[in-house]
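Good morning,

Attaching, inline, the backbone tokens for the sequence recovery test we're adding to the shared suite. The designed sequence is right after.
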């Protein structure tokens, strides 16, 4: 029996046994790959399985708004089971891949298990980049997972609440300076949006405290680079820097962190900043799984062809932040940037290529012209570069929010996010401290499961 799929030509005969298609990673790449595969391949052609640590797709670009309480954490967590009802979900982390036996080892909540596959898509994503800096592992928090975002919000509130209650003594004033200082490392999207939005949020909840003036809170943004938001270009980077400076944010460029303790951060220029809040957003690195595969990498990302196949192994593709997919639309000698935009579109493209390997449609190389990048700076401020057009202020803010609503994968998620944005514009800011995440669970290695690969 042959079937005709619109836009994909005549398919090959239905196989005697459905192919076992396994996707590792439920982020933008993996989620979109499975969403498209369910449309291209019927149950008689493929059994679809997802291996992921959570049962939801996290729309991570909006994590800063979870950290400020503008959005409920569930607003940006799209249920995998509801959105992909045909997909079997295996909760856990893949720690090893046997390409000869075509088996995966999964560490899940109930222990280890083995999973067989016929076609494999590797989309494990990325983690916050780690540096061998004294004290960072023990005292720095990332902003890449829901637990980290929720913890940071509660932690900042707790620090300001504690400062509000300190006595006006030399010891009290010294501790107050530590609690009222927030240091963020990385002037890319994560660090810049976090500082800008958090500073704006704290200004909006000034009535919470009797003695703490939001202007007393010291915000320090540190980056070894010489510009803020370099991905958006020099002009918009300067615009963002001007917004931060106007709000009193202390931006330190050309320096980084030399060490950290529970109560201070020492910079590479030897300045010691009293602080009990260190947020780390200095870049990303491919999932630790990639280093365990024994395959060629480029800049830590798995080497793949333009069609996203992994050279040297059959029936394996890799996409997203963990794969060095050649950027055919810009410079083929360089990989596509590790952005959600590329991961989403690579997911759709790899689904087409996997389907082609099963006799449905034709494989094609991945090529996507970047639609532009956006950054929300809180309040009415933003910077954006849609289709290469530089925008600032309220217009950029509107474009940023419009893009996020467009990129959210379900209608229900769009409605919830848009509704929360509406509520936040007309209702008082939410300032309840729901301290449900332990500090040790919000540290980068624990929250992003990096320690799991260190142990096994």
């Amino acid at each position: 029996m042959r079937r005709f799929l619109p836009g994909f030509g005549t398919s090959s005969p239905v196989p005697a046994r459905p192919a076992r298609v396994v996707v590792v990673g439920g982020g933008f790449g993996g989620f979109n790959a499975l969403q498209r595969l369910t449309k291209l391949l019927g149950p008689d052609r493929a059994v679809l399985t997802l291996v992921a640590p959570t049962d939801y797709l996290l729309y991570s670009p909006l994590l800063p708004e979870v950290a400020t309480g503008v959005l409920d954490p569930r607003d940006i967590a799209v249920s995998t089971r509801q959105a992909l009802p045909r997909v079997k979900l295996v909760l856990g982390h893949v720690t090893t891949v046997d390409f000869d036996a075509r088996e995966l080892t999964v560490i899940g909540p109930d222990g280890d298990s083995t999973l067989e596959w016929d076609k494999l898509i590797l989309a494990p994503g990325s983690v916050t980049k780690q540096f061998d800096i004294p004290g960072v592992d023990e005292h720095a928090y990332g902003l890449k997972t829901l637990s980290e975002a929720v913890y940071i919000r509660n932690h900042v509130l707790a620090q300001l609440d504690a400062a509000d209650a300190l006595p006006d003594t030399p010891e009290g004033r010294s501790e107050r300076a530590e609690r009222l200082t927030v240091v963020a490392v990385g002037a890319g999207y994560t660090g810049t949006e976090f500082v800008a939005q958090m500073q704006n949020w704290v200004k909006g909840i000034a009535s919470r405290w009797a003695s703490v003036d939001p202007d007393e809170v010291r915000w320090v943004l540190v980056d070894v680079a010489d510009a803020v938001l370099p991905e958006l270009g020099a002009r918009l980077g300067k615009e963002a820097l001007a917004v931060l400076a106007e709000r009193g944010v202390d931006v330190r460029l050309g320096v980084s962190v030399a060490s950290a303790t529970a109560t201070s951060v020492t910079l590479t220029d030897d300045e010691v900043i009293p602080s009990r809040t260190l947020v780390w957003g200095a870049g990303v690195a491919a999932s630790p799984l990639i280093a365990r595969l024994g395959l060629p990498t480029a800049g830590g990302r798995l080497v793949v062809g333009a069609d996203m196949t992994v050279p040297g192994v059959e029936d394996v593709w890799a996409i997203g932040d963990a794969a060095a997919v050649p950027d055919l639309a810009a410079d083929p000698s360089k990989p596509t940037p590790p952005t959600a935009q590329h991961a989403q579109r690579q997911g759709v493209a790899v689904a087409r290529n996997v389907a082609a390997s099963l006799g449905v449609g034709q494989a094609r190389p991945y090529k996507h012209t970047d639609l532009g990048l956006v950054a929300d700076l809180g309040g009415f401020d933003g910077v954006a570069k849609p289709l290469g057009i530089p925008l600032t202020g309220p217009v950029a803010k509107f474009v940023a929010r419009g893009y996020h609503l467009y990129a959210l994968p379900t209608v229900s998620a769009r409605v919830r996010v848009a509704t929360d944005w509406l509520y936040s514009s007309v209702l008082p800011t939410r300032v309840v401290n729901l301290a449900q995440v332990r500090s040790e669970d919000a540290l980068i290695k624990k929250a992003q499961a990096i320690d799991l690969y260190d142990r096994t």
